[in-house]
Structure formats: structure tokens, C-alpha cells
Amino acid sequence: xxxxxxxxxxxxxxxxxxxxxxxxxxxxxxxxxxxxxxxxxxxxxxxxxxxxxxxxxxxxxxxxxxxxxxxxxxxxxxxxxxxxxxxxxxxxxxxxxxxxxxxxxxxxxxxxxxxxxxxxxxxxxxxxxxxxxxxxxxxxxxxxxxxxxxxxxxxxxxxxxxxxxxxxxxxxxxxxxxxxxxxxxxxxxxxxxxxxxxxxxxxxxxxxxxxxxxxxxxxxxxxxxxxxxxxxx
Amino acid sequence: xxxxxxxxxxxxxxxxxxxxxxxxxxxxxxxxxxxxxxxxxxxxxxxxxxxxxxxxxxxxxxxxxxxxxxxxxxxxxxxxxxxxxxxxxxxxxxxxxxxxxxxxxxxxxxxxxxxxxxxxxxxxxxxxxxxxxxxxxxxxxxxxxxxxxxxxxxxxxxxxxxxxxxxxxxxxxxxxxxxxxxxxxx
Lengths: 233, 186
Hints:
Chain A has 233 residues and is α+β, with helices and mostly antiparallel strands. Chain A has helices at residues 11-35, 40-44, 46-73, 93-96, 223-226, and strands at residues 99-103, 110-115, 121-124, 129-132, 135-136, 151-155, 159-164, 168-174, 180-186, 188-190, 195-196, 200-206, 213-214, 217-219. Chain B has two domains: 1-38; 47-185, 3-Layer(aba) Sandwich (Glutaredoxin). In chain B, helix 3 runs parallel beside helix 6 (178-185). In chain B, 35% of the residues are buried. Chains A and B meet through helix 1, helix 2, helix 3 and strand 11 of A and helix 1, helix 3, helix 4, strand 7 and helix 6 of B.
């Protein structure tokens, strides 16, 4: 049991604590058993019942003892480098920013991208880039944007930046083609977890109007191709 | 006591012993279960320590394109920090790293910045901040490697602190506070 010492903060206490319970329960059991000569009938029924009772009491005391220990041991002694209140683990990028793309049915050929930005997360407007059928479309311009308006965020590092921090529906160009490949590159962060996601690329194969399409592939783009606008620099 | 009674008594004693044994068994299971639960975080680090070892054996190019193995700093308390200029929380914690490098260099702290970025903005930011520890360039493929190193989403910032004997002292997805570095170094 020595290997446990020092690994459970109060294991020493715990190791000393348990035998007391064990001894007491066992002694009490032995003393009571020896106190009187049981009748033959008791051997088969009552004594078994008594043994069961003591066994249960013993188990209960063990559970309580461990519970008390667990309470004493929680929270464990502060560990080097562990903050008192750790932020939540980051979500997967596709959970934080689920996306679908659709060619609108209204004959205008507009492609709408829906991003269900999760609470406590945001995507940078200036880091969006789009390609349709292999050709760059344009980044999102906050002035020309027809969809949901981005919000301005005061970032101590980047100054005033425009972000989407809630579910958005944005229009990313028009096409007459029925079969269109839309590539979306974006970058976002989780304020909740205090982390940023690397630049991410998602491709949508649009085949008919009015159908929302999920991303078809998951590829991390080369960084050189990503930050033409170099917002962060 | 006749033989039948004695036999019954023996059966009963055996039952009681069996119950006591079951009790002890439950205790042991509970204790081990508790131990398992209380140490779940340590276990997580321990499980990925093997993967994290890759970092110690890796080599990264310096800003002058010179291959620099991490083993250069063997024997130091190493804080290896993956960062990028496009990552706001990364930039936020770096002034603390500069401060800590100055304060704890004599105690054997060596911070290494691994930039998952392009070189030009990295050089600019390193100059702006007067970074006093080595900045090396990490290929973006490392973001996928990190997924097996306690950073399943491959996000930044991400830091690992190795002790002087290469033991993993801390794995952090997100920022590290100055006070945490102080605790490690004291």
C-alpha cells in the first residue's frame, strides 16, 4: 500500500482510519457472538441474520468512512499549475461553428452560408475567405454584407475587430451553375475555453437549389495560403 | 454442542467470514475506485506522457532557419509553448513568459516558443515584445500531432512543462498564469 502514500493527499490519514473501523466492527462482532450460547434454532436462521446485519453495518461504515475521507481529500492539495477554476475543455471546431451552405431557391443564385456560432465563441469576419469552383470569390466585407451583421469586438491584442459571435446566415456570392463547390476558410476562438482554433477550411458540394449541404471534407489549409489579409499583423 | 449444531455453527462462521471478506473487498474496491477518481487528471497526463516525449526529441527551425533540437536544453525546466500571432490568448500570455524567463532563468527555467505561423509576423511580434527566449517555427502539421498530446482539438495556446528529468509537470490547453510558473519554479 506504500505506493499509494503521497499520491492520495491524505492517504496516510485514510490508511490509519480504516483499520479502526475494521477492528471495531470485527471486535464487536466477535464479542457479541461469544456473549451467549445460542439455541440450535438460532444457528441456521438468526445467527445468519445477525451476521448479515453486522456485515451490512460493516459495509455501511466502510462506505461512510470512505465518503468522509473523500470529502476530506476533496479538493486535493493545489497542484502546481492547476488553476482554481479551470475553463471548460474546448469544443471541436465543427461543434463550435457548425456550417451548412445552400443555393437559394429564389432564382437569384445566391449561396447562403449558415454558421451556428455557439455561445462563448466567435469567428473573425476579416479572416473569412471563399472560393467557388476553384476561384476566389471575395472575403466578407462588413459594409457590403447582406446577411447578419457582424459585431465589433474590442480585442486587447488586435484592437477593434469585427466578429460573428452568434448564429449567422451570410450570403457568399451568386452563381448560375447548379453544381457548385464552395470552399470556406475561416478562423475563430472560444472565449469560454480561452483558446483559438487554427485556420480551418471546409468544402461544400452544392448540387441543387434549396438543399442545405454540410461540409464535405476536413482539410487544414497551408498557412501561407490563409492570411492574405494578415489581419492579425 | 452436538455435531449437527457444530456443523451449523461452522457454516454460520464461514458465512460471517465470507461477509467480512466481502466487506473488506468492497472497502478495497471503494478505496481503489476513489484513488482512480481522485487521480484522474494525473492519469490523463501520464497517459499522454509518451506522446509528449516526441516534443523532447523534435527539432524545429529557428527564425534564422537553423535546425534546433529541443534536446539542446536538456536538464532545464522546459516550458514549451505552441502559439501564433493570429491567436489573441497566445499573445496575451507571452509578456508573462518574458517576465518568467528573466525571473527564473537562474533556477533553470527555459521557455521555448513554437510558432505555428508564418515567419514574417512572428519576427515582428517577437521584436515588438522583446521576447527573451528562443522562438522556433513549428510546421502546422504539429497541430495534428498535438491532438494526441492532451490537446484533442489542436487549439492554441498549448503548453507543456517538462521537469529537469524530462518528467511532464504540466500540460495546458489555454493560457498559463505567471503565478503558476512561480509555483512550478519555487
